[in-house]
Each structure stands twice: as structure tokens, then as C-alpha cells.
Amino acid sequence: MSPFDPQLALPLRLTPEYAAADFIPAASNAAARSWLARVSAWPEGRLVLWGASGVGKTHLLHIWTKAEHGVMLSARNLVPISPPLPGRIAIDALDDLQDERALLHLLNLAAESRSAVLLAARTPPASWPLSLPDLKSRLCATLAVVVKPPEDHLLAVLLQRLLAERQLLVSSAMQSWLLRRLPRTAAALREAVKRLDEAALASGSPVSRTLAQHALADLLNGGAAEEMDNC
Amino acid sequence: MRISPFGVSTFRVKNNTDWVQSSLLVWGYAVADNRVKDQELVAVSEKAEFLPAKPCEVAEPRGWEAPPDEAELSQQWIRVQHRLQQEVGEVEYRAWLRQMSLGGLDGDEITVRLPTRFLRDWVRSQYGGRLTALWQAENPRIRRVDIRVGAAASEELALGETLAVSAAPSPVEAPRAPERIDARAEAAGLDPRFDFESFVVGKPNEFAYVCARRVAERPAAPGFNPLFLYGGVGLGKTHLMHAIAWELIRRPGPPVFSVAYMSAEKFMYRFIAAIRSQSTIEFKEQLRSVDVLMVDDLQFLIGKDNTQEEFFHTFNALVDAGKQIVVSADKSPSDLSGLEDRLRTRLGCGMVADLHATTYELRFSILQAKAARAGVSIPPKVMEFLAHKITSNVRELEGALNRLIAHANLFGRPITLETTQEVLHDILRAHDRRITIEEIQRKVAEHWNIRLTDMSSARRARAVARPRQVAMYLAKQLTSRSLPEIGRKFGNRDHTTVMHAVARVSELMERDAAFAEDVELLRRMLEAS
To answer: Which CATH architecture group holds B376-429?
Structure first.
């Protein structure tokens, strides 16, 4: 390998820990936290958390599942469960739901056994493209709580944390530079940090404005904002 | 109560003359044993951790002679943490530093522990200098701070802390089924709230209600067997079926009827399980021994030919034996294409009653009845609003009301038209529409009666500059666009101009209540449109 070849950046799988202590409380997630702490107040024992990608829904689901000694399932792989239910249940990423009947059946079983069910998705149930009317009406009748887009200081901490996860050293001046120019969503920050990491690794140089302007051109110019909104 | 291996519970009821035995099929799979207790999380106030150290008397550092005792050290540690928190801010402190714990003092070196290597490295590189300086200021004996990996802060505390936020002082529980209910009914999957008394009758459901009443009074009467209830989702089919079961179970005097209620889905699961465990004969016998069999949502048997076949035979055996069958589905028997013809014919040969879509009047009375049952007073304006807006079905209407009540209880806020719109905004706005900068500019320009082009013009007169600033402020609040992009949309202005506008508008809103109200009104109009 000649010294001029770019360093090959291997995808590094980062597995977040989702510890309770790592969750950053803020006004944007206060309503969600209040509801999660009071399962007995959920009408019909059901709750839907919704909000854009990266606002902390999965993290909250992990914390709740742990605190309630529940079980966490993924919507994509949801299959009909035969009773008895394993206790309280959290289902993440309802946007990827494949088997609507399995979910309907699970909700009915949970209602019978009075087990709480916590669901999470990017959009509220009223906008989900469900084909089973029974499921649709149950979910539309469910208490839905929004995790709002992160406020400025939460974005700042999120950026710090994303950078730290990749052990990427970026000056605080550079961080504010990024914060002032990037679309203000968690997903955009995540994408930006990933690209900065790859670019820094490939070029073997630290994160600078030049590098950022190059690697994040579309994000900084608002071109990809529309796209990022939808993820 | 005895639970047989097959899941039939038999209970005896003493009456004046004799022990009368009755039985109820249990399709609930021993759910009673499996119920999870409603444990409340330990609510720990978030602020507890950040209370400033008490201004108590602490002895002057004793110089070099005696090492400070542990109590003194931990007091110093509290102050160090507090100062650090003040310096870096609460959010950052929480993110990185709250898991620090105090090790021991060894000579001139104090140990601070963090639970993971990553956190240790991060704190060492980002805050090491500040920690050392603060410790040195607090205790001249200390020269160095050793940051190490060590025991984490208590996990349990962290859980409670993270989830707990200031809720209303003593929230009343949401309307839910009472915990202590009839074991028979719970085992059979009957909802105790679904009885005839709680069913609100109106024109659209009157006929179905009368039929259900009739069946509950005299099961298996000619002309009412089978009773076939149909209608769209959430209109009360399940409610009426549960009500029939309750009426039969709670009937005063010796129980004479054994009732089995299950969803078609569950019928299928039980049937498949019986085949697997080679106990189909017992399965058939159990089903055929009941007096009233109720199967909910029969449309779920479409495409399940074997289960349909089994149901058909059970159906015939029961009807022939003079037992009552109650079935519900989303369509009338003749419209249930996908079910075998002979089954459809038999299903339609008794009483077929449909539940129509609700009317405004029925929806309004349902809301009134529900609110009265929950013991909550709800302004008539709110009920009118809900009855107008949520027309899909009763389940969603009740769901909306439950949400309002639960929200009012949890946060201790009264139910008003405004909170209603806020709490239910996700269902009131059918499609989750994104607000665009162009829309914001248009609304703001309209509001202050200026030209839309002035949003991007270079004019600096207050009459156009102020609305422009408000539009920038709203663009930051209501969209996730980057600041440079917002600037671009306002005549290629710089992102610092946007930042200035946001700061200016926030400041004005704090000083001028009327102005704040204007901006708030615009925000609501944009969010509601």
C-alpha cells in the first residue's frame, strides 16, 4: 500500500449501551419520561411513544423494560406469540411491522392478562398505513406521547456523545461550527459524525472545517435535509 | 376453584337447597397467575442530586498534620461536584460526570472512579484539569487526581431518577378495570367494564342491543339462535358479547349456564394446540359441553379451512343440542366471502343484527356517559368538539376521552378545549404534515399585513424587519432546517442574522406580553393548519 492510498475505513459497529444513567433528560422528552414512570396511569395499559429517528425512543424502551422486568421485542420480527405472555412488553420500531395479525393478537392477549404494552415508532399511530382495521382502531385509541425534536443544548450534548463514541477528537469551536450549520435533527448529527469519522480516517487528518465542508457538503447546504427529515 | 389440565374451571356455588355446579371454560391460560404486579418506580426527584452542598461549617484544612476524616472528604467531594456542575452546566454534567464516585485519599493523590473505561478516558481528557484544580482549591493536601475505572453509581437509583419527572402531586389513577374482579370472568377474558349498563344505546345500535338483551334473558330461544352481530370495528360487538356473558354469570340464583367466550383467533390457537397435543377429542367435548358459546371476530377464520371445519361441526352439535351460539364479524354472513357456504348459511339462519356507524348524538351521549362513569367533569364544549372530530368509531372516541382524562390526572391540568387539541393533536391532524419555511413566511406576512416579498427583501424598516425576525424565529422553532438554510430562504441572509433574530424575538417575547401572545398565536395557527 503506497502512502498515498487512502486508509481503508472499516465499518465499526457501535453498540450503544442504553443505560438509564446515560439518558439525557430534557424538556423534549419530559412527557415521555413522566408517562413511562407511571404504568398504572396508562389507559388500557398501553402507550405509544413516537418521535423522529434518534430522539431516544429505543433508549427509553430499554430503560423501561429493565425497570419493569419486561421483555423487548422488535416489530420487524414479531410473530404470533402463544400465551402466556412473558410479562410487560415493549415493541420497538413499529414502522417496520410485518405481521399485523401477530400484533393484534398480542394486544388482545395483553389486555386479557392486564400486561402493559409499550410501543415505539417514528410517527403517531393515526398515520400508520395499517391494513387491519381492528388493529388500526386499537392503536388509534391508544395514548400516544411524542418525544419532541431535541432542543439546542440536547443537540450539543448529543454531538459530543456521538463524537466520543467514535473516539473522535473535535474542538468545541468546531463543534459549535457544526451545530450552527447542520440540520437540527438527531439523525442529521448521527449521519454527519459517521461521515466525519470515515473522512478523517480515510484522509488520516483531524476534523477541520475543510474536511467537514467536503464530507458534509450536502448536509451543510440543506440539500439532504429533506431526506434526513424522513429517516 | 379447580383448574383442570384442559383449562376448565369448575366452581361450586352454595344456594339454599343444594350445591349447584356450574362451569366456565377457561381460555385464558392461567392468566391470573401470570399477572404482573403494578409496581411503581421509585420516584426520586431529579433535583435531589443537584442540591447545592449545605452551607455548613467545615473546618479549615488542617494543613499537613492529620488527614481529613472521611466525612470531611465526602463533604469536600460534594462541593467539588457541585462546582464542576456549575461550570459545565447540568446537561453536560449529567451526560459525563454524574457517575463519578469518590475513591480514597492516598498521600497527596485522590481517586475518582468511573464505571467504564470509555467514561474514564473521556473524563480524564475533558475534565481532568478542572477536577484537579477544584480538588486542590478544596483541599491543599491534594496534588493529583487519579481517575480510574471502578464501581458504578447505583443503577436502581439511576432508573428511578431518569424516568421520574415532576408529575402532579397525587395523580388519580386512570379509569381502569378494578384489580379485584371476579376470577371466573377474568379467566374467561371478559372485561368487567363491558356490561349492559355501560352500553350507551342510540339509534345506530338499538336493534343489536335489544337482541343481545333478549339472548341474555332467554338463551337458545327460537329465532335468536344463532345471534349474529356484525358491524365495523369499535362499534360495540365485543361489548355486547361480554355483556351477555356477564348477565348470565351474574344472574341471581343458582348458576345454570356455562358460558364460553373467545376470539376466533383464540379458537384457532386452541384447536391447533389440541391437534399438536393429540387431544382433539377432549377439545371437542369441552366445547360441546357449554350452554352458550360466543366467538368474536369470526372473519379471522377466513382462509383457515381446518379450523372452519371444526367450528362448523361444533356449531351444529351445539345448535342441535339446543344451546345458544353468539357470533360476531365485521360483515354480514352473506358478505363473509371466504367462509364456506354451508357455514354462512347456518350463521344467517338465526337473528342477524348490525351495528351502524355512530351518529353525532350517540357519540355525544357516549362521551357524557363515560365522563360520568369516570367521575370527571368535562366542559360540554370539549365533548362537542370530540363528538364532531372523532367520528371513526366508539373505541377511538373513548380512547380519546381516556387520553384526556389520563393526561389531566397525570399532570394535574384541567381539561379545556386548548389542552384537548394539544393532547390529541396526533389524531386530530390526520396526516403528519411538515411545516415549511414558505408557509411560515406567508402566515407571518398575512398577520402583519406586509408583502411576502418583504420576507426576502433588503428593506430594514421596523415594520418589515420585525415580522421577518418573527418568521425566522418560527422557522427555527417549527422546522429542523439548518440555520444557514433558513437564512438562505430569507433573501440569502447569513446564519448569524438568523441567530440574532431568534435571540431578539425571544427577548422581546419576555418583555412584551402582547407581542408574545401574537407569536404564540401564529405558532398555534401554523401547527393546527
So the answer is: Orthogonal Bundle (1.10)
Whether the per-residue pLDDT at A97 is higher than 90: the answer is: yes
Contact with chain B for residue A134, Cβ under 8 A: yes
Q: What is the pLDDT of residues B457-471, one digit of tens each?
A: 999 899 999 999 999
Looking only at Cα atoms, what is the longest distance across chain A?
Answer: 67
* Range 266-325 of B in CB contact (< 8 A) with A: 269, 273, 297, 300
pLDDT band at B39 (very low <50, low <70, confident <90, very high): very low
Q: Letter for the amino acid at B323?
A: K
Q: Beta strands B8-14 and B19-25: pairing type?
A: antiparallel
Which stretches within B251-340 are classed as H helix? Answer: 264-276, 280-288, 305-320
Q: Which chain A residues have a beta carbon less than 8 Å from that of B402?
A: 43-44, 141, 143
Give the DSSP H or E segment for B109: strand B109-114
Residue A128 touches partner B, C-beta closer than 8 Å: no
Looking at 3.10.180.10, 3.30.300.180, 3.10.100.10, 3.20.20.70, the CATH number of the domain B70-162 comes to 3.30.300.180
* Cα distances (angstroms) measured from residue B8 to each of B14, B189, B258: 19, 13, 11
Q: Which of A54-58, A82-86, A117-121, A198-202 has the lowest mean pLDDT?
A: A82-86
In terms of pLDDT, which residue wins out, B29 or B276? B276
C-alpha angle with apex A61: A55 to A66, nearest 5 degrees? Answer: 140
User: Which residues of A, range 37-76, sit inside 8 Å of B by Cβ?
Assistant: 37-45, 50, 52, 63-64, 66-68
DSSP B471: H
B122 and chain A in contact, CB less than 8 A: yes
Q: Cα B317 from chain centroid?
A: 43
Chain B CA closest to residue A86? B34
Regarding an ipTM greater than 0.95, the answer is: no
Instruction: Determine the topology of domain B183-355 in CATH.
Output: Rossmann fold (3.40.50)
Residues 6+ away with beta carbon under 8 Å from B420 = B382, B385, B386, B404
Cβ separation B163–A36 shorter than 8 A: yes
